Amino acid sequence: MRNINKKKVDAAILIIGNEILSGRTQDLNVSFLSDWLNKRCGISVEEVRVIPDVELKIVKNILDLKRRFNYVFTTGGIGPTHDDITAKSLSRAFKTKYEYHKEAYSILENYYGRARFNDGRKKMAKMPRGSSLIYNPVSAAPGFIIKNVFVMAGVPQIFEAMVQEISLDIESIDPIISKTIKIFKKESEISERLWKYANRYQDISIGSYPFNYSGVFGVEIVLSHTDRVLLNKVFNEILSDFNEPNTN
Fold it and tell me: Which among 46, 107, 215, 227 is least surrounded, fewest beta carbons within 10 Å?
């Protein structure tokens, strides 16, 4: 059972890439970005989607997500090959010209040198008109920001480095704090009481997650909120109610 409430600032993540859908590549970026947004920025990730490298699907999803969420983060599809079409697709979504970004072009030309700056590498400097750059300290090719959409690489090492570059571009609020209680009962045995807390404290995200540790069954109750005082109050109430030791 989960009680998820819309936070003051929210985000969606759009993973773009056939390699994720086929299983050839395992996504590592969602957990990193979600943790960073929650703990560093107080931004709640409310939705994650995985779509193929298909222009119409990228456009459709971007138009929907940018309207519904404060921020949208995309990963994948900004490399030098023919199937890297994220930047071009976003130009279509925002109805703006797909063109070379002067600073991005200069960064890549300096990185590769003129002799090795071929058409594929030049392609990584093309993005929607009006974009601002997300710098890439690992392999130079930048991501970009247009409106409330942040576009980054899919390679985890590069993606994580890019995320650090946008830390000052996001309007941070109080970080989201989480506390966990382990209860050694089945979920069905505690659901009724847990619903009472979910209804009483609707501003707090309350999640229940069954576990099995070598044959020992139980439930982890995870409480999340930006108000530490309120979070501790509810945490202690549940501890007392379920007569469990303080587990986190």
Answer: 215
| Separation between Cα atoms, residue 213 and residue 69, nearest integer Å | 37
pLDDT at residue 172 tops 80: no
CB atoms within 10 A of CB 135: 17
pLDDT of residue 244: 55
Of 17, 35, 20, the C-alpha closest to 151 is: 17
Q: Edge-to-edge strands of the sheet including 10-16?
A: 44-51, 10-16, 71-75, 149-152, 143-146, 132-134
- Distance CA(146)–CA(131), nearest Å, equals 5
For the record, the structure tokens of 22 come out as 């086929």
Amino acid at 70: N
Q: Render pLDDT for 23-70 as a digit per residue (tens, 0 to 9).
A: 888 889 999 999 889 877 888 899 999 999 999 999 999 999 999 999
Rg (C-alpha) for the chain, rounded Å, is: 22
pTM higher than 0.90: no
- 3-class state of residue 121 by DSSP: helix
Q: Which domains does the chain possess?
A: 2-165 (3.40.980.10), 178-242 (3.30.70)
Exposed, middle or buried by CB within 10 Å (0-12, 13-18, 19+), for 77?
buried
- What three-state secondary structure class fits 82? coil
Distance of CA 211 to the CA centre of its chain: 25
Q: At what angle do helices 86-93 and 55-68 cross, to 10 degrees?
A: 60
